[in-house]
Amino acid sequence: MVSVTDRVSGIDFIRAFLKNFKSPFYVLCAILVGVAGAFIVLIGVDVSPALPVAVMVAIPAIIVACWKPRIAMLGFLFLILFVEETPGGIDGVERSERTFFYSVTVGLPAVYIPDLLLTGILALYFLKFVFHRERFPFQVDKAGVGLILLFATTLMSIVVSLSSYQTFGPPILPGNYGFFEGAELPEEIARLVAILQMKLFVIVFPSYLLGLFFFREKRDLDQGLLVFSAAMVGTIALAIGRLISNPDMVASLVTVIVDTVSIWLMGCALFYVISRWALRHYSSWGTTVRVICAIFWVLLILLSFRRTLWGAIAIAFLFWPLILPRKAWGRLLFLISVGVIVAGIFFAVTPVGQVVFGSVMERASETTLSQGSTQYRFAMLVWFIESLADTPAFGHALTPLWDETVQLRRLEVTMEGIHSLYLWILQRLGLVGISITLIAGVLITLRFREVYQIVRSEKAKVLTGVIFLSYIIFILNGILNPVYGQVRQMILFGIALALVTRLPAIFQKETDEEKAAGQGLGSVGKFSRDTLMRCA
Prior knowledge:
Shape: globular
Distance between the termini: 51 Å
Order of helices and strands: HHHHEEHHHHHHHHHHHHEEHHH
Number of strands: 4
Number of helices: 19
């Protein structure tokens, strides 16, 4: 039987829940969701029987997102951290193909599910702040100034490009659509590739704004780190499942984790976990779990067969001691020494280790002048040297460049999908854009240094330092890879920069609250002593 107290508590809970919907913000959101849901269900039966069911699931999720945008943000963050590309291929060449999350549009050119989620959550935060008359959490620091300069330069390049009659005018060479001879694209799609590339680059700016809205309290930081941990553990589970289903992947040099962004994230997780362990932040059982995860992350980084990322992580490794307090250096050196010894035994003695080591060395030895990707990198360097003087001040922006080709020996490639972040910036944003990018990079680096010096908590210093190491990996990986085309990496990069911007305020607020609580306890203690004296 339910007691009267329970019934009253339940009624109070319902009243408190319904009280939230008296706000115009929630009423407006409920109306919009209801109208959209009714419309979709009405036309959904004719489109697909599964659509109304999907709407029934989506509407509660949207209502929760409107009620608590931070819950939607945590879900979006998990998807971006975890969902990756799956193995696929073109003409037998093992590459990757997009999952549903990244490949399905809504009928609009170059608009995908992550774009909609990012825009929708950002709009929810904006509406919530407007209706609640809260102060917008915008904070302009050196990182923000650098991004503003880069965004203004990008807009200027687009405007200059649109003012030219050749924006979509240059001829597109038939069949010349990239590195694979058999790949074909309709001409209308080929002309939109430049727009898609620009969008994937520009997406870092709204991601930065979204991060400023989300990271406001210590709770947001802790829950964000929890989601990051869950995504990294999920990546391990995904890799184990693939290895169980196809044990020959390692010997065949088929990457277990396909997307380079996942390798980037696992490198960051490895730096973070070991840094916290070196500072004695973990309990004994927690250390065991994290050691197991760290071993898997090291193996998966090796089994990614991403040579550029191997080099980038190795260079970031050299900066690692600089982000740690001096007292952690001894434990870090001890752990590295033990890790090298254990890895040497594993690779030299165990059969599994010998297979992994053989595959890694075989992949590393492919970096020769006869290898296709190496020739492609040299071809990009040739193009850079030959076309630097002819590059427009604001670049080609949205102009398709399928007819811009470079030839090295028998290799002829188009410069439309250039595999280098910085050559792409030079190509699309021009000399002005590459100069502003350099300035923005310096400003972001200075901001990292400021934040590291401002924060006092060891956890905050480690977090700032690891994000800085991720920044080093990001800029090094961009030398030989099209980082601008990685929607996950650009979104997470913007959110990470926002976290660095907000980190001092978050920890200062926590310190102020602790001081206030301490003063309150001190007052209570003084009151108790005075009372006892009077009673005596």
